[in-house]
Amino acid sequence: MAEMVTYLPISSPFIRLAGRFVDEAFGVAAGYNFFILEAMLVPFELVACNLIIRYWSDIVPTGAVIAIILVFYGLLNVFAVKYYGESEFWLALGKVLLAVGLIIYTFVTMLGANPLRDRFGFRYWRDPGSFAEVYSTGSLGRFLGFLTCLVQASYTVAGPDYLSMAAGETENPRVVLRSAYNKVFGRLMAFFVLGSMAVGINAPYTSQELADAYTNNKPGAAASPYVVAMNRLQIRVLPDIVNALILSACLSAGNSYVYCASRSLFGLALEGRAPRVLTRCTKNGVPIYCITASQLINFCVIAFTYTRFKKACDVQGLSRDTLPYKGRWQPFLAWYAFSGCITMVFLNGYSVFIHGNWKITNFFFSYTMVGLFPVLYFGWKILKRTECIKAENIDLHKDVEEIEEYTRNFVPGPPA
Questions:
Q1: What is the C-alpha to C-alpha distance for residues 210 and 214, in angstroms, rounded to an integer?
Q2: How far apart, in whole angstroms, are the C-alpha atoms of residue 83 and residue 379?
Q3: For residue 236, what is the DSSP state?
Q4: What's the CA gap between 214 and 223, in Å, rounded?
Q5: How far apart are CA 416 and CA 407, in angstroms?
Q6: Sign of the torsion angle spanned by Cα atoms 20, 375, 253, 334
Q7: CA–CA–CA angle 19, 20, 22 (5° rounding)
Q8: What radius of gyration do the chain's Cα atoms show?
């Protein structure tokens, strides 16, 4: 994605590039898939924020909490990207502090620096063990437990796609985005891998307190393995700090979802695939009328679009060495990402097919977009009679001249 977006930093890049490099119908399906994903995640975060606040008190009515957060999101997203970026900087700072703080907390407490002087180390990796048995016993049960975690992880991994959505509103994007893409991968890997290890260190999967928190739908951080560990070690105050930082993380996530939903719809409108009224912008370039289990499909789209971009570069003689950013081991990594994501798309709701686990709501939650995506794709393809674009006919040069001129003549403004 970094290679394509730094070369063509346009509004809603991976959505519009899917239509330019693969097929117009592919871009339509990708755009509406991403819009539905982001739009549906906004109420999810609203509910999460309300539950987190109820960790302390339920004195504020639920409707009031949701209304305040909606106004907050609306005001931030009506202004230009610099205000969105500024708000995200401070909100995301809470996420970074939370992730780094909990990793440090784990390291310190596991070595015995806690009120109980309990040097527990990797105790829970040995007893009851690091792999829980799910839906079955033995090796199959442990594999299904791992697969369940993998499904949950595939839902939470995000970053480069959100970063790319700001390309069309970013100052000097070829320079700024190249630096941002270089940093985001390492940070995501560090936080996800170390965070996953820390969770297993702090609490066993057999913890009754953790099970009760999920069973009784306790609000906020009560269902966190970190808070379970803090309660076990008789550590005070820290659970409240964790809850506050989780609240900032949820606010940040919801803010990103509103931004990305509006920009994806804006990108569709620019290409004539949504009502033209949605292209109306404020004087700051904000699409004002757009503020309103597909995550894996989204990554499939990005990976496949890149393979077409790479093929077009090879066929048309565009050296990737001349691009602002050049990815390593391509197109092999793109095909690996595509294969892995498409596999996880179909495994996403595997648990409903296990005997005794069938729930119609879980089935539709997991597979609605799997059915809707091809309907959008083939529906638009039949309606507009679009064709898959051959590598030699892919337009690699549209908008490039304007972007290069902007980059050459860019003069940094004074610091805010």
A1: 7
A2: 38
A3: -
A4: 6
A5: 21
A6: negative
A7: 65
A8: 23
Placement of tokens 């040097």 in the chain: 119
Q: Which residues contact 325 (CB under 8 A, 6 or more apart)?
A: 2, 3, 6, 7, 177, 178, 181
In sign, the C-alpha dihedral spanning 398, 402, 406, 409 is positive
| 318-374: pLDDT as tens digits | 888 888 888 888 889 999 988 988 888 888 888 888 888 888 887 887 788 788 888
Residue-wise pLDDT for 215-265, tens only, equals: 766 655 566 788 888 888 888 888 888 888 888 877 777 777 777 776 666
Residue 37's nearest CA partner among 281, 345, 277 is 345
- Cβ neighbours of residue 314 under 8 Å, at least 6 residues apart? 391
The DSSP element (H or E) to which 148 belongs, if any, is helix 138-156
- What is the DSSP secondary-structure string of 77-115? HHS-HHHHHHHHHHHHHHHHHHHHHHHHHHHHHHTT-ST
| Angle at 371 (CA atoms; ends 368, 372), nearest 5 degrees | 80
Q: Give the closest residue to 373 by CA, choosing from 44, 31, 42.
A: 31
CB 105 within 8 A of CB 237: no
pTM of this prediction?
0.73
Q: Please give the angle made by the CA atoms of 84, 85 and 91, to the nearest 5 degrees.
A: 90
